[in-house]
């Protein structure tokens, strides 16, 4: 029996072959994306230590999850899977969308050094505010640290752009839209669901998590 006969007689082998190719392509792309995100998240004093202990592992895992979600969605979009697993494909699409909304800052530990530096000036800022010399928010360390403030402003701009692109407007309700940011626990739940879906489909996910 030649190779062509073997593949044509074994649909499961064809399915596994397709999955292996899709999974490798998307997981590798997700890995590269995650490493890039990890580097960006570690651009601070102590870059080497920060990247090795925080940015790289978190960025890599997040990138792999995004790649896995994309791989599952591509796999479920192939006929005849598309006709049989439409509901599952919609769920995976929702998971992929949720993962794309996750920032490294959502799941990384707080920058304790920056916060400590800001708090060093907190007491004096409160005194200045009491004397009417400072109108800044002295209850928030981020307001006293230029790096933290710039980061918060950028994330606020990203949130605003996301709201505009999705047609969400806070003016309709008379209040400023303030969507809840995802947490590390949310990402863990999404990961567990993705792996459960892969098992349900009989697919093997061979990934070394950081």
UniProtKB/TrEMBL annotation:
Residues 165-177 have a biased composition (Low complexity). Pfam families: Yae1_N. Keywords: Cytoplasm, Nucleus. It comes from the Eukaryota. InterPro entries: Essential_protein_Yae1_N, Yae1-like. It is found in: Cytoplasm; Nucleus. GO terms for cellular component: cytoplasm; nucleus. Residues 30-69 form the Essential protein Yae1 N-terminal domain. The keyword Cytoplasm applies. Transmembrane segments: none annotated. Residues 165-184 are annotated as: Disordered. Belongs to the YAE1 family. This is Protein YAE1. It comes from Ganoderma sinense ZZ0214-1.
């Amino acid at each position: 029996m030649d190779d062509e006969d073997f593949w044509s007689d074994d649909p499961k082998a064809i399915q596994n072959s397709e999955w292996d190719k899709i999974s490798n392509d998307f997981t590798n792309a997700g890995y590269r994306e995650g490493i890039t995100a990890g580097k960006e998240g570690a651009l601070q004093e102590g870059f080497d230590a920060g990247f090795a202990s925080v940015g790289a592992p978190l960025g890599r895992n997040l990138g792999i999850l995004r790649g896995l979600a994309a791989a599952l969605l591509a796999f479920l979009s192939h006929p005849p899977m598309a006709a049989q697993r439409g509901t599952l494909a919609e769920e995976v699409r929702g998971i992929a969308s949720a993962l794309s909304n996750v920032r490294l800052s959502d799941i990384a530990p707080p920058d304790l050094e920056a916060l400590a530096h800001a708090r060093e000036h907190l007491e004096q800022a409160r005194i200045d505010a009491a004397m009417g010399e400072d109108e800044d928010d002295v209850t928030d360390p981020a307001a006293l640290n230029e790096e933290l403030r710039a980061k918060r402003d950028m994330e606020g701009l990203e949130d605003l752009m996301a709201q505009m692109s999705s047609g969400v407007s806070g003016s309709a309700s008379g209040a400023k839209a303030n969507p809840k940011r995802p947490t590390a626990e949310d990402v863990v739940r999404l990961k567990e669901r993705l792996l459960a879906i892969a098992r349900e489909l009989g697919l093997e996910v061979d990934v070394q998590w950081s």
